[in-house]
Design a protein that fits this description.
It is a single-pass type I membrane protein. Its main location: membrane. This is PCDGD protein. This protein is mainly beta and 350 residues long. The chain folds into four domains: 82 residues, Cadherins (Immunoglobulin-like, Sandwich); 98 residues, Cadherins (Immunoglobulin-like), CATH 2.60.40; 99 residues, Immunoglobulin-like (Sandwich); 41 residues, no CATH class. It is 1% helix and 42% strand. It is built from one helix and 25 strands. Strands 8-15-14-11 form a four-stranded mixed β-sheet, with no helix packed on it. Strands 16-18-21-20 form a four-stranded antiparallel β-sheet, with no helix packed on it. β3 and β4 form a beta hairpin. It is rod-shaped, with a radius of gyration of 50 Å. The N and C termini lie far apart (131 Å). The mean pLDDT is 91.
């Protein structure tokens, strides 16, 4: 009997046979007491009684899927003789129950370097119906293509797995809907929330925003030589960056208040005559474990300033000449040099 059958519906039962005759074969029937069923007797053309099972209440297969009844036939003899038959009523299913998820929101936290194909979470929905009406399949429900490119849901198991590489720096959280459908067309929905945790998978990046080169050798200490931007796309300690200079350059690093900008300034006076240029390497180190580094090479050329006076090869020149030396004769050649270059190093005599 289907659970959708309305109360009052009758179901004919088997008629008993009695080999006696007369009043000894007159039959009546009895049914074990049950609140869902009663017994009715229908008069047949030959005067015998047809037992009928009458449904008294609406059935619910999910509460009780079968009933065991006993139909008893009683003859009219003295003493009475009886015969029994077992009546089993199986309640067939109506798709009157939708799937139900065990949670309204399923949460998971996974690392961004999770291999493709890894299990992220598993959703579970149950359906109280039987057969295909209670068989649940899972799918996405109106999700963006970006979600489908990263995740997949198994229609049978409800397992959500990765199909693409996760990147915390691109998106740190995904929220999307999942659907459970039974064989009769009922559906249920839940949300999946997947938080992506950061891994130290990005090295610091150094960008040279401005570089003052060449630098006059007479530039004062504290002169800004370069403005740099240091960035690490990771978060937390993985994105905390410290900087250091390598190479013997008369420069130092000054951090901005925000920390993402670095200024290279002169830490001591320059001397082009000692070094015409300075090459240094700026290293940025993040706080990850293990740490990742980024580097930038900077070359600073020093231009000359007129900071050197000419110097004679001798402090004093002595020459002895005869008194009758002709006018215009060369008495001596003096030599002076200047450590500066260009016009600053060109010497004139007087």
């Amino acid at each position: 009997i289907g659970e959708w059958i309305t109360p009052g519906t009758r179901f004919p039962l088997e008629v008993a046979r009695d080999a006696d005759v007369g009043s000894n074969s007159l039959l009546t029937y009895q049914l074990t007491s049950n609140p869902f069923f009663s017994l009715a007797l229908k008069e047949r053309p030959d005067g015998s009684k047809q037992p009928e099972l009458v449904l008294e209440r609406a059935l619910d297969r999910e509460k009780q899927s079968s009933f065991e009844l006993v139909l008893t036939a009683v003859d009219g003899g003295d003493p009475m003789r009886t015969g029994n038959v077992q009546v089993r009523v199986n309640v067939t299913d109506l798709n009157d129950n939708p799937p139900v998820f065990s949670k309204s929101v399923y949460e998971a936290r996974v690392a961004e370097n999770l291999p493709v194909g890894s299990l992220v979470l598993r959703v579970v929905a149950t359906d109280a119906d039987a057969g295909s009406n209670g068989r649940v399949s899972y799918s996405f429900s109106n999700v963006a293509d970006g979600v489908r490119s990263l995740f997949t849901v198994d229609s049978d198991s409800g397992e959500v797995r990765t199909v693409g590489a996760l990147d915390f720096e691109e998106n740190s959280k995904y929220i999307f809907d999942l659907e459970a459908s039974d064989g009769g067309g009922f559906t249920a929905h839940c949300k999946a929330q997947i938080d992506i945790t950061d891994e130290n998978d990005n090295s610091p990046e150094i960008t040279i925003l401005s570089l003052s080169s060449p630098v006059p050798e007479d530039a004062p200490v504290g002169t800004v030589v370069a403005l740099l931007k240091v960035r690490d796309r990771d978060s937390g300690e993985n994105g905390q960056v410290s900087c250091e200079l390598s190479g013997e350059a008369p420069l130092s690093i000054v951090a901005s208040s925000g920390g993402s900008y670095k200024v290279l300034v002169l830490a001591k006076a320059l001397d082009r005559e000692e070094a015409a240029f300075h090459e240094l390497v700026l290293r940025a180190i993040d706080g990850g474990d293990p740490a990742r580094t980024g580097t930038a090479r900077i070359r600073v050329t020093v231009v000359d300033a007129n900071d050197n006076a000419p110097v004679f090869s001798q402090a004093e020149y002595t020459v002895r000449v005869p008194e009758d030396i002709p006018v215009g004769s060369v008495l001596i050649t003096v030599t002076a040099t200047d450590a500066d270059e260009g016009l600053y190093g060109k010497v004139k005599y007087s």
